């Protein structure tokens, strides 16, 4: 470890941490994180999954998971909320939904540390962290302070989004976090009346970015009204419409278990 970098300390009870990140907002990162966590929880060999909303300024997991109320404090630790399968924690549980969080960087870092270390996560096979957009203090702090098994980058095929997706992937590579690959979100829109497909945000841009960076494409998520509506209603599509066509892509993103090869860990999707 380079001199001056903090020593990474695992989160108590958590075996593997996955971070879901994007270079910019508005690309469906939180929707992907929620449905990914639910997809992992439905996989074989996975006993328990947690979901942490690390976007302090714009927490969205409470709405997407239909969770409300303040968490209880037991043995000096916050109790995570349980609905569906993942246990969840978010700054959104600690403030009013419409209240602005006007904090400086040090206060945000303190809040993130509390969400990581002072939550009773129990025993988790995977903790999925929905990161804030960008490549700022929160991403760097989390990457340097806890061991991360892998990062999933979410982007639309649009050129502007891809510029920031590349920055996000390169940031994780610089801090030695394995980048598992890129999810191409809103990849295609299929008209519900005539079934005509339109690539509103461009075609295969994220796939081309992944190829240029030597990364995998983990899946193509369509632009579908069911995905948007179910998250707005707090009933993510993976649990509310598990047999639908659009869900099949999220289930491809499952991470059933870690495999060991010659002492090194890697993910099997």
TrEMBL record:
<dbReference type="GO" id="GO:0032981">
    <property type="term" value="P:mitochondrial respiratory chain complex I assembly"/>
</dbReference>
<dbReference type="InterPro" id="IPR027417">
    <property type="entry name" value="P-loop_NTPase"/>
</dbReference>
<comment type="function">
    <text>Iron-sulfur cluster transfer protein involved in the assembly of the mitochondrial membrane respiratory chain NADH dehydrogenase (Complex I). May deliver one or more Fe-S clusters to complex I subunits.</text>
</comment>
<dbReference type="GO" id="GO:0005524">
    <property type="term" value="F:ATP binding"/>
</dbReference>
<keyword id="KW-0496">Mitochondrion</keyword>
<keyword id="KW-0004">4Fe-4S</keyword>
<keyword id="KW-0411">Iron-sulfur</keyword>
<dbReference type="InterPro" id="IPR000808">
    <property type="entry name" value="Mrp-like_CS"/>
</dbReference>
<dbReference type="GO" id="GO:0140663">
    <property type="term" value="F:ATP-dependent FeS chaperone activity"/>
</dbReference>
<dbReference type="GO" id="GO:0051539">
    <property type="term" value="F:4 iron, 4 sulfur cluster binding"/>
</dbReference>
<dbReference type="Pfam" id="PF10609">
    <property type="entry name" value="ParA"/>
</dbReference>
<dbReference type="GO" id="GO:0005759">
    <property type="term" value="C:mitochondrial matrix"/>
</dbReference>
<dbReference type="GO" id="GO:0046872">
    <property type="term" value="F:metal ion binding"/>
</dbReference>
<protein>
    <recommendedName>
        <fullName>Iron-sulfur cluster transfer protein NUBPL</fullName>
    </recommendedName>
</protein>
<keyword id="KW-0479">Metal-binding</keyword>
<keyword id="KW-0067">ATP-binding</keyword>
<dbReference type="GO" id="GO:0016226">
    <property type="term" value="P:iron-sulfur cluster assembly"/>
</dbReference>
<dbReference type="InterPro" id="IPR019591">
    <property type="entry name" value="Mrp/NBP35_ATP-bd"/>
</dbReference>
<comment type="similarity">
    <text>Belongs to the Mrp/NBP35 ATP-binding proteins family.</text>
</comment>
<dbReference type="InterPro" id="IPR033756">
    <property type="entry name" value="YlxH/NBP35"/>
</dbReference>
<dbReference type="InterPro" id="IPR044304">
    <property type="entry name" value="NUBPL-like"/>
</dbReference>
<keyword id="KW-0408">Iron</keyword>
<keyword id="KW-0547">Nucleotide-binding</keyword>
<keyword id="KW-0809">Transit peptide</keyword>
């Amino acid at each position: 470890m380079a001199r001056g970098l903090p020593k990474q300390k695992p989160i108590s009870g958590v075996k593997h941490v996955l971070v879901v990140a994007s270079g910019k907002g508005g690309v469906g990162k939180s929707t992907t994180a929620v449905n990914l966590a639910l997809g992992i929880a439905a996989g074989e060999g996975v006993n328990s999954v947690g979901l942490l909303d690390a976007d302090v300024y714009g927490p969205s997991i409470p709405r997407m998971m239909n969770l409300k109320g303040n968490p209880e404090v037991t043995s000096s630790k916050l109790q995570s909320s349980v609905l569906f399968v993942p246990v969840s924690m978010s700054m959104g549980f600690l403030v009013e939904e419409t209240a602005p969080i006007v904090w400086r960087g040090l206060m945000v870092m303190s809040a993130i540390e509390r969400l990581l270390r002072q939550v009773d996560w129990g025993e988790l096979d995977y903790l999925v962290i929905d990161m804030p957009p960008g490549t700022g203090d929160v991403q760097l702090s989390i990457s340097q302070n806890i061991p991360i098994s892998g990062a999933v980058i979410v982007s639309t095929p649009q050129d502007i989004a891809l510029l920031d997706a590349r920055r996000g992937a390169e940031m994780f590579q610089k801090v030695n976090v394995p980048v598992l690959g890129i999810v191409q979100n809103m990849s295609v829109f299929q008209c519900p009346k005539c079934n005509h497909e339109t690539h509103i945000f461009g075609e295969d841009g994220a796939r081309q970015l992944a190829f240029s960076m030597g990364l995998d494409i983990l899946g193509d998520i369509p632009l579908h009204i069911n995905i948007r509506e179910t998250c707005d209603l707090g009933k993510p599509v993976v649990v509310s419409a598990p047999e639908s066509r659009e869900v099949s892509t999220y289930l491809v993103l499952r991470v059933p278990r870690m495999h060991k090869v010659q002492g090194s860990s890697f993910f099997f999707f």
